[in-house]
């Protein structure tokens, strides 16, 4: 991870209007291997999650995280998310990828978080337009 990782991470942190709290448990805000605990407004309630940053790639503007603990892990054995931001005209395109394994077959896919993620992506877009 290079020191330029701050740019991608600053974008992420500035766009987190849906998040109520975030604290570094291990490492820092900008390095792979860091662990961060978030409190956020999910549809229907306030939730927490502890995640590790697996990778930050400033060149491709991609961040990959794995969830370690928290409310979402009651439903999924594993949950890994990556998002990639690319400029597009006056805005940005965000590609969000979520890989997961359900605790059991009665658990729905994690679409509960779709509106949350769409709103978050719009915040990232607004940040990039003003950067």
Notes on the protein architecture:
The structure is a single chain. The protein is α+β, with helices and mostly antiparallel strands and 131 residues long. 21% of the residues lie in helices and 48% in strands. It has a six-stranded antiparallel β-sheet with strand order 1-2-3-4-5-6. A hairpin with a 2-residue loop joins strand 2 and strand 3. The longest helix has 17 residues, at 114-130. The chain is globular, with a radius of gyration of 14 Å. The two termini are 22 Å apart. Mean pLDDT is 82; it is low at 1-6.
Properties at a glance:
single chain; 131 residues; alpha+beta; six-stranded antiparallel sheet; 2 helices; globular
Summarize the structure.
The protein has 131 residues and is an alpha+beta fold.
Structural class: alpha+beta
Order of helices and strands: HEEEEEEH
Share of helix, binned: 10-25%
Flag low-confidence runs.
1-6
Question: How is the secondary structure organized here?
Answer:
Elements: H1 5-14, E1 19-26, E2 35-42, E3 45-57, E4 62-70, E5 76-88, E6 91-102, H2 114-130
Antiparallel strand pairs: 1-2, 2-3, 3-4, 4-5, 5-6
């Amino acid at each position: 991870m290079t020191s330029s990782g701050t740019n991608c991470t600053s974008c992420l942190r500035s766009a987190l209007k849906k998040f109520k709290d975030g604290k570094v448990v291990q490492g820092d805000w900008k390095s792979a291997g860091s662990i961060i605990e978030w409190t956020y407004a999910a549809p229907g309630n306030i939730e927490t999650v502890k995640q590790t940053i697996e990778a930050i790639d400033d060149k491709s503007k991609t961040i990959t995280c794995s969830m370690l603990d928290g409310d979402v892990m009651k439903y999924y054995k594993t949950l890994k998310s990556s998002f990639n931001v690319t400029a597009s005209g006056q805005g940005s395109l965000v590609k969000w990828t979520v890989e997961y394994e359900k605790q059991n077959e009665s658990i729905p896919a994690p679409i509960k978080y779709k509106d949350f993620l769409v709103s978050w992506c719009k915040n990232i877009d607004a940040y990039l337009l003003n950067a």
